[in-house]
Amino acid sequence: MKRTLDIGVLLSRSGMYAALAYASRLGVLQGVAEVNADHTLDVAFRVVERDPEGRLDRYAPLCREILRDSQARHIFGCITSASRKEVIPELERFGGVLWYPVPYEGFEASEHVAYMHACPNQHLIPLLDWALPSLGKRAYFVGSNYIWGWEMARIARERVAAAAGDVLGDRYIAVGDTDLDHIIQEIRALKPDFILNSLVGDSSYAFLARLAELKQEAGFQSGLTVLSCNFTECEVESAGSAAEGLVSAGPWFEPEGGSGGSFHEIARQSVHELAKLLHGRPGADVLPLSELVQSAAGSGHTPRLDPTNLHARQPAIIARLLNGRFQEIKRLPPLAADPYLTRQFGASHDGPLLKVVS
């Protein structure tokens, strides 16, 4: 007999990054359907859903509403780091857990967040370590004007400098802004070897379109390779042919050319992971996340999350978009997350790096 538990879903169906949220939402709902149909598990999930509509000011109130007005203690959602940081105080207030299934910039370890996707040592560092010897050392950074863009550029600047490279430009625009003339003009003048694109949603699609136009000009048929740690298959349709040639890093790419990418797949896996952590353990859904992970490990399940920092071990895959599909260039075996980059320049340490404390 299955016991049914409420889980929250906090993902936007509209707004400037709707394609990302749409893929994640479908992944959550697929995971719920699979768990509910799995007779080897004694848990089933009932979805309590709220739509923030891509508006930052709605995330915290809607998170509070889910935790206050339902039995849900585990919420799947948030796309931007800004929205994740908005809900953490509500998770702390009500003892909830956010299952965060998208890449982020690191430098965080909350006992109320399950970081299921990749952090910089699992995406940005491997991507730059491939790009600098392969493409050249003249870099240009462009990003959305919030913590994701800022931190990705900061980490990348350190890595490029360590490789004796040059950062030719580091520019930011507001999330959703598509006024890119000044950035395209600067890229035209500087001719970087590669561009780290940390723009989100509509801003990214507009940038790729403008850059594709620049590449048609004389003298720009080579170089200007775009690198990304957050562009997946779920955005190919929105970006169109302008994204061709983009090189992305992440833990998973569609093997058969699907459209969900890692945003869909990691969201789906996250639902399964929670179900396995709760299987055979009535009442465990109210445990603190670190205790839930540690106790599940003691009962024979090998959790995806590291109990010391609540980040998942993930492979690092580098792939290039060609003819609308990502083709793998390089793959690293699953890497333990190092959210504070204590090993980023080669220091070796096999023991726990970080303990989550309240």
Roughly what is the average pLDDT, rounded to an integer? 94
- Based on secondary structure, the structural category is alpha/beta
Strand content: 15-25%
Q: Give the biggest beta sheet.
A: 7 strands, mixed
Low-confidence stretches are 346-353
Protein described:
Helices cover about 35% and strands about 20% of the residues. It is of the alpha/beta class and about 350 residues long. The chain has two domains: about 5-120 and about 255-315, Rossmann fold (3-Layer(aba) Sandwich); about 120-255 and about 315-335, Rossmann fold. The strands form two sheets. Strands 7-6-8-9-10-11-12 form a seven-stranded mixed β-sheet, with helices on both faces. Helix 1 links the parallel strand 1 and strand 2. The radius of gyration is 20 Å and the shape is elongated. Mean pLDDT is about 95; it is low at about 345-355.
